[in-house]
Amino acid sequence: MGKAELTRRTMLAGMGGSVAATFAATGIAAAAEDSVHDSRAQDLLRRMTTEEKLGQLQQLTWNGDTGPGGGQNAEVERRARDGRLGSVLNIYGAANTNALQRIAVEESRLGIPLIFGFDIIHGFWTTFPIPLAQAASFDPAVAVSDAAVSAKEGRSNGVHWTFAPMMDVTREPRWGRIAEGSGEDPYLAARFAAEKTRGYQGSDLAAADRVAACAKHFVAYGGAEGGRDYNTVDVSESRLRNLYLPPFQAAVAAGAATVMASFNTVSGVPGHGNAHTLTEILKRQWRFGGFVVGDYTGVREMIKHGFAEDDADAARLALNAGVDMEMVSTTLSDHGRELLAAGRINPRRLDDAVARVLRLKFRLGLFDRPYVDEKAEIPGPADPARAASRAAGARSMVLLKNDRAVLPLRRPFGSIAVVGPFADSPDLHGTWAGPGKKFPAVTVLQGVRAAAGQAVVRHARGVDPEGKDGSGIGEAVAAARASDVTVVVVGEPSNFSGEAKSRSDIGLPGVQPELIRAIARTGKPFAVVLVNGRPLSIGGWLDAAPAVLEAWHPGIEGGNAIADVLFGAVNPGGKLPVSFPRAAGQLPIHYNHENTGRPYDPNDPYSSYYLDLPNGPQFPFGHGLSYTTFDVGAPALGRDRVSVRELRGGGTVEVRVPVTNTGDRDGDEVVQLYLHDRVASIVQPVRKLRGFQRVTLRAGERAEVRFALTGEDFGFWTNRPEGEFVIEPGAVDLYVGNNSEGGHKVTVTLT
Ligand code: BGC
What we know:
The protein folds into three domains: 3-376, Alpha-Beta Barrel (TIM Barrel); 389-586, Rossmann fold; 630-750, Immunoglobulins (Immunoglobulin-like). By secondary structure, the chain is of the alpha/beta class.
């Protein structure tokens, strides 16, 4: 049995019986449907000219929102009419997309419809919390709610395809794109990637409320050196397969229609010219039948990388490596004909790429219904969508600290001050707000006012998000002094995270820390609310603040969601999907590191540590408090010995974990299960997450959480380039608890 098969089987086992059965059944139905699409695609392919084939592999951007016009748009229209265009990105609106589609369908020779792509990353009209926040919910249903709303709003506006989910595992909070993914853990990221993919696509891509997904960026983009966007990544085969690939494999197994190549190099080879990752792993080993789209001008950028000589060479390298559609640069449509004539690209490979694109167009139903119903266009965020975003926002928040139970704010109180640069700021959408930006987000002040009942609510901005001017701090202090309790809302503007938004200092920008310290000096109770797109280093002021709520960039209903948590309507239950460092100088810092030969030992000056910082993060992966307390008890094992053979054959080890709400409020806990393979042929992480479950328990209630560990959980990928997944005999420690440190330990022996 091949490794890929083993992985696929064990993944199904890990999903639990009924889900696995549904998935398998959908798989069979999908395969039958696929062959119909494929024969229609092949039939069309036989009638296409070389120009038309190359055209299907070209995607261009639409630069206007107002309908067909001049400039780039005229070029887009011209190509659509000539049948030399496969896809357009950045166009939306039922009337706009229909107008352009009409040109392709009614004026081109073969009438092949265009596919319209758009970055719907965390909401179209209705912005949801950023993906990093969603991961903090440790509840993939949160991502599904975003995906379902996004797909419905997007498709009604003529968008067929979203460039999401982004699933780049990263250990780099300096990297602004950390906001777009699920953080530092491959298992958590894989669970979210699979569920979000299903959430976008549903069971029928032709449905009026579904869009095709795009697993991006393939691959290892999150490994950017120094956390600087687009930067070099040099990675071993084992790290590639154990750290960066799992979310993609999960998304492909969940049926992701497309995959996007990444801008970075992978060990010297650009993502767009990487036959090993695109063809060998993705298309051969995983049998991915969808298409690979390049990233924005990424094909041509291989010239600047120093990998391709010129445009023609870039086109050749990209197509041969496995890119099927070129985004924005036009090397393939410009040079494809001459490359074919010179035998530098293979006509069968060209046909394969075109067939992949056409098949998706058939699956989306575009040949049968190329136009979207203009009367059914969703014009903005509807109430149920807002409610879903609000719930997602609150569910994603992480209570980092809560000394003296400052939170929740208890009624009755006479007055509350809401201060800080983000107290009354609508800049809560987050990095990829897209068209939804035109609807201002609910501010924290608005949310608090709506929730505060009779209380007097005071407000002062205090300081700007950036800049050095502290002259407004006095006013904020006065508001705090006059009030019973204060909420200080600080953080990063949305445009501090996302693409090309790397920072070297990941503290609160400007003089915001001074504002916090000044409020602390009033001696009155207060809580800090953080709104940001990355982990921040907050050690400089953390001791001064009794309570800190990490709210991330929470989306359009942000202020209401924050008020829900501040006042206790929602008891926070999120956990950090990424470590919070003490200082940027510790980076990369992540819980799933390997041991050195000299792990930190306070009594050994020649062990691994920094002279000027304690080892370990400020807050570890998986950390998050609640307004109640929980006890995660010692786990019981179904068995403590299992043979490798059994695991390979689908055997499992059951782990049962008791969890009790020991406080006086209902609340959520995330039970987490980590593994450590003590001795292995490739050094293993000190811990790796292999199970989690968020449970809601009434005050005093006890429950049991069950995990079934499979061969996939116990094994790992080696460095063999062809891909080798091994499960080795020996002792494996399991830890269960409510973060990545401490917890109860039991050992399973693999024989
Ligand atoms: C980003 C992608 C995005 C694409 C289209 C690129 O710059 O890297 O994530 O999907 O643009 O907007």
